[in-house]
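Your task
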Amino acid sequence: MTRRLRVVVCGTTFGQFYLAGIQALPQEYELAGIVARGSDRSTACAERVGVPLYRTPAEVPADVDVACVVVRSGAMGGPGSEIAREFLARGIHVLQEQPVHQGDLADCYRAARAGGATYRLGDLYVHLPAVRRFVAAARVLLADRAASYVDAACSMQVAFPLLHILGDALGVLRPWQVIAVGNEGPLSVLHGTIGGIPLTLRIQNEVDPDDPDNHIHLLHRITIGTASGSLGLTDTHGPVVWNPRLHIPAAVRDRYDFAGEGTGHLGTASSLALGPAQPPSYRESLSRHWPAAIGADLLALRAVVLGLPGADRPEQYHLTLSRMWQDVTSALGYPALRPGQDHEPLPVASLAGAVAGIADGIS
């Protein structure tokens, strides 16, 4: 039950985050190799972590237990799902990075059963600290208040995780429907329902074909509204914010009395951070939180492989999320191509300086 599983990582772009996640679990996993085409980056990566570089899945030794497939799936124009099925046919367990087309996902589950292996879809975003805080707060909120609406925004690259976060937060997915209502500017707008709750989605359906992992306007922003107020995830990395709904009581409306009956709620802050108000830097998120989040998926896979108590099997849930993701991408249509994008960092000191002299009073 405590033995280390030997694991290979397929792909060295996003796969480098998986390598970091594996290296952070030395008691549970042993890195046994990298599977890649042999580019300079892949060769240097294998040398840096001190493991063999295999050019094809067929070259991977039979004593490997797990393959992390971090190569674009067929839905994204890559061979990831085919690679996953090749490993599963050999009885090698697979953790595949999202998103995956529902048909490919079902094929991988079938291949896993035929090969006597375990297949799991990976999604690091739902394990990030701010997302877990948002989900925890949402579950408490919705146990006591009905959701009035959901407003959410993301880039098309992370639309599947958005649905995953919503499913975890709401605890319900159906009835589900989305239709496109606008496609002007960077953000396309979809309306619909999720779990019967009115839903608005705003998605940046654009990509730079030469640099598809960059130049996105946002990762995830979500607001769940209720009669008491709204719970917001302002970014994938936080903060999580509670905004009580403004209600002007009769004492204020009729007598301008802020201490009279029914005014107690006015002493609550109009915006309250749940957890740290200052999110981590991107350096900390990418180097520490993302690998740790991937580690959570690795540990969940290991629990199933070794038959540990409490191991979860979210196959049907992930199939439903994949079907919903296909509905969203179908409604959006093909992304607009925006080649030649530039990275233009802005020193935040210039913004801080602009507001430094503004006091709380009105002048």
Q: What stands out?
A: The chain has two domains: 5-122, 126-286+329-337. The two ends are 68 Å apart (CA to CA).
